[in-house]
Amino acid sequence: MKTALSLLLAGMAFAQTAPKQEKSAFDKATLEAYLRNLELYLPSVQAKIDDAQPSKEMPGFFDVWVHWVAPNNATKDELVYVSKDGKTIFQGSVYQVNRNPFQPNLDKIHTDLQPSFGARGGPVSLVMFSDFECPMCKAEAAILRQNVEKSFPDKVRVYFIDNPLDSIHTWAHTAADAGRCVYKQNPQKFWDYFDWVYDQQENIGLDNFSSKLQQFATQKGIDGVALGHCVETKASEADVQREMAMGKALQINATPTLFINGRRLEGELPWQTLDTLIKMELDHQAQEAQAADKCCEAGPQKVVK
Fold first, then answer.
1. Contact status, residue 185 vs residue 226, Cβ threshold 8 Å
2. CATH number corresponding to 22-90
3. Which uninterrupted H or E stretch holds 217?
4. What is the pTM of this model?
5. Hey, which residues does 78 pair with through a beta bridge?
6. What would be the CATH architecture of the domain defined by 103-285?
7. pLDDT averaged over consecutive 10-residue blocks of the chain (305 residues)?
8. CB-based burial label for 55 (10 Å; 0-12, 13-18, 19+)
9. Could you tell me if residue 221 is left (phi over 0), alpha (psi between -120 and 50 degrees) or otherwise beta?
């Protein structure tokens, strides 16, 4: 009896003196609870936390992607940095003074397979992540189509990337598939489709999309049978998924989202604002080039007597 009592007392003493284990963000439950309290997410919002991966942007930290899903299927993806000991987390962007601040965005944007118009090889790249059912996207599309080539005929190239918001728009994804089908059949006709979809946006629904699409094909000289088959079989779905993956990597949660040489701009922007920002980017490039030239100029030779 004494031996058992001694062991019990010893165990109690150990429990009282053992150091308290500190919480770590590597415990996904702890990280989720912390972020819920920070962002005031309701219990109905579901979270999925990916495994930690060594961070390229922040040596000594890990990248942890957190995916939030609301009851209406609206989603938000965010990147959280976690220290190696799991005791420190932070959100935000990481910048290196000797590196282009927008390079991380540029590394995630791939435009080689995307519809585009404007100056080929122009010094300014304007990338539009958009949704065909989005009213603000319609307004921004008209602004770009009416002004870019007229104002910057040899300076700006515009690229379009699908980012349909499936949680709130019923036919945007189908329209994205159709757009890629048109692009595969005739890349130049894509911009006819682009203008047509936004012009007809208020008259299109999921119930009449196919018939409207056939009307468009007849008007623009596109093979309607091949186009319909492409949409029905989702032959272009892989392209749309690739585009949406780009948006996810860039943490795009709203449309339209524009990138001017990697600089993120969200929401509908008037042409006056875009015009100013493009000119500022061109001026910045000129200043960078001038600074580089001065750096490489040979100074006066010192005469040694």
1. yes
2. 3.10.450
3. helix 209-220
4. 0.78
5. 66
6. 3-Layer(aba) Sandwich (3.40)
7. 41 46 73 90 92 89 91 85 89 83 94 96 97 97 97 98 94 98 96 97 96 96 96 97 95 94 95 97 90 64 49
8. middle
9. left
